[in-house]
Amino acid sequence: MPYLSPALNVMTAAARKAGRGLIRDFGEIENLQVSLKGPADFVSTADKRTENQLREELSRARPGYGFLLEEGGVVDGPDKSHRFIIDPIDGTTNFLHGIPHFAISIALEREGQLVSAVVFNPVTDEMYVAEKGQGAFLNDKRLRVSARKKLNESILATGIPWLGRGEHATFLAELAAAMSQSAGVRRFGTASLDLAFVASGRFDAYWERGLSPWDVAAGILIVREAGGVVSDLDGGARALETGHILAANEPLHRQVLKLLTDAARSAKS
Ligand code: LIP
Predict the structure, then answer these.
(1) Where are the domains of the chain?
(2) Which of 72, 124, 203, 269 would disulfide-bridge 157, Cβ 3.0–4.6 Å?
(3) Ligand 1: does its nearest atom lie under 6 Å from the Cβ of 211?
(4) CATH architecture, domain defined by 6-142
(5) CA-to-CA distance for 106 and 217, rounded, in angstroms?
(6) Which atom from ligand 1 is nearest to the alpha carbon of 194?
(7) Which atom of ligand 1 approaches the CA of 94 most closely?
């Protein structure tokens, strides 16, 4: 059984409750796909409503804590040492298109350190949790990153930049290198779940550029507590700040970092 601190208990309860609302909203999406207006406004309302609900639940249980919210930005609380980092719907594009792969992501920071994390996929009812120093769990099962050491046997996941976003040339060079040296590359579209999949050994490694703190905060702690390594794309510890992230087991982290560094360099020369 996972160790659930009181804070983590509050976070999982809030995620479950908000998840029920998201499931109802997701049911509407299919109908809206075929309407002329499309589901965009509906989804943005669902996003904001879910965020408000999470904020209310968490504030009630932990009055005074601050927030970093995808929609609402920074909300300072009187307690300067704690803040929740929340993405109410990570994988919004999937959600908008009726693709059942999205998550609620909640991290708790204490004195600037990630200490508790929840990534909840309400469709599959998969609740990933981690507590600093206590390990990572999927529902009741302890998580461990994969044991693969060989890149040519590994599945890598990534995020693909799109219209108006990211350095396409750099990404294409990275993808070409990853394709030619690994057993395959996946793009599922939800950073928090990509990280949770690394933690559970489903993916051997994951990299993406240009993410926001709320996409990755909870997932970073989950990977680390599952024995994985998370860095930025220079190999440093600033993934949360830079939004450029690489997560893997230790031997693969080294190999994929080199592959990406070489590829990015070749794209620039
Ligand atoms: C999304 C990420 C996804 C990434 C998108 C976006 P959102 O988060 O989970 O992996 O490719 O750029 O950041 O916007 O759905 O919360």
Answers:
(1) 6-142, 151-268
(2) 203
(3) yes
(4) 2-Layer Sandwich (3.30)
(5) 8
(6) 10
(7) 15
Residue of 134 and 34 predicted with greater confidence: 134
**What is the distance between the alpha carbons of residues 181 and 156, in angstroms, rounded to a whole number?**
10
- pLDDT digit string (tens) for 112-137? 999 999 999 999 999 999 999 999 99
Average pLDDT over residues 28-35: 77
Annotate 78-110 with three-state secondary structure: CEEEEEEEEEEEECHHHHHCCCCCCEEEEEEEE
pLDDT at res. 177: 98
190 lines ligand 1 (CB under 6 A): yes
Query: What CA–CA distance (Å, rounded) separates 83 from 202?
Result: 30
Whose Cα sits closest to atom 16 in ligand 1? 90
Tell me the pLDDT tens digit for each residue of 253-268: 999 999 999 999 999 8
Annotation: CATH topology of 151-268? D-Maltodextrin-Binding Protein; domain 2 (3.40.190)
159 lines ligand 1 (CB under 6 A): yes
> Is the minimum distance from the CB of 50 to ligand 1 under 6 angstroms?
no
pLDDT at position 3 over 90: no
